[in-house]
Amino acid sequence: MAVGLLLLPLLGLAMLPPGSDIGGIVEAARASRARSAVPHHPVHVESADRLDALFERLGYDLDAVAEGSAPVPPVVLASLPPDLAEATPVDRRKALFIRAALPIVMAANAAVLEERAGLRSLLARVEAGRRIPRELRHRFRRTAERYGLADLEAEPAGIRRLLRRVDAVPVSLALAQAISESGWGSSRFALAGNALFGQWTWDAAAGMVPAARPAGATHRVRAFRTLGDSARAYLLNLNTHPAYAALREARAAARRDHGTLPAGEDLARALTRYSERGDAYVADIVALIRQNRLARLDEATLADARRYATAAADATIEG
């Protein structure tokens, strides 16, 4: 099928020249579809029972999602239900948490993949010798600055270097870390601060003091306005912090050799510096991926948000 026009919101690219990067076109199309599936407003659900009822009404079943016979309803929660930690039995609480966290992670990934698709198309444009308008160069520099590479120029080597950072992570890995860091959504940080991934901050106005913080320590667990903000900050952390350079290298190698993201288990082995527990933390993340069969969700897709707007609105306090 001939492709004549493709809108890329990040870099404002439209007409694609002969010889354009087909891989970038495919990534752009997938990212655009995924982004259009995400609601503009987070959903507020007041209780675990109400969340469970919403998921049942939407036919949201993890087995069907894993089999590819059903997409993930794009219900992106603003916060977890305050009584989630009390939901019983335990298996029900765990399933609720996974179903709640999955579209949040997927939405955050989709935003990054949209940026990546724009960069891939920009690279194809540069390599084809086409002029890059000033506004596109400014947007590229703003993106590079946000990803900690402010010195880059919009030329092939610089774009490729930025592409190593602007990428998604397997949802299996993100879900396992959210489970570990939030205690299946039961921690004070998750419930009061929308913190799914245990990120630290030294800004007294932006975090919550851990109860067991050692004497003399000044770090806090970063709090967020919404769960989506937490997921986006988590991805930016993995994509920029020097501690996770090995993860980015492994991901780039998988992209180069296979054209896909590596398995969540494989990337988990590059996270020894995510926690003070080091290798023990990595072992726990791998175990969570295996025990909860999270890898089967790596190919999940988000459904069109318009199909779910009414049902989601019925369950919300505010849209």
Describe what you observe in this structure.
This protein is mainly α. The chain has a single domain (21-313), classed as Orthogonal Bundle (Lysozyme). The chain is built from 13 helices and 5 strands. The chain has helices at 22-36, 48-57, 62-67, 90-127, 134-146, 156-163, 171-182, 188-193, 227-240, 245-258, 264-268, 279-291, 309-314, and strands at 5-8, 13-15, 200-201, 207-208, 220-222. The strands form 2 sheets. It has a 3-stranded antiparallel β-sheet with strand order 3-5-4, with no helix packed on it. The protein is globular and about 60 Å long. The two termini are 39 Å apart.
How confident is the prediction overall: mean pLDDT? Answer: 85
Q: How much of the polypeptide forms β-strand, as a percent range?
A: under 5%
Strand numbers in spatial order across the main sheet: 3-5-4
CATH architectural arrangement: Orthogonal Bundle
Helix percent band: 40-55%
Q: List the secondary-structure elements in sequence, H or E.
A: EEHHHHHHHHEEEHHHHH
| Helix run count | 13
Number of domains: 1
- Rg, rounded, reads 20 Å
* Structural class based on helices, strands and sheet pairing: mainly alpha
What gap, in angstroms, lies between the N and C termini?
Answer: 39 Å
In the predicted model, the low-confidence regions spanning at least 5 consecutive residues are 1-26
How would a textbook summarize the main sheet? Answer: 3 strands, antiparallel
CATH class bucket: Mainly Alpha
Q: Count the strands? A: 5
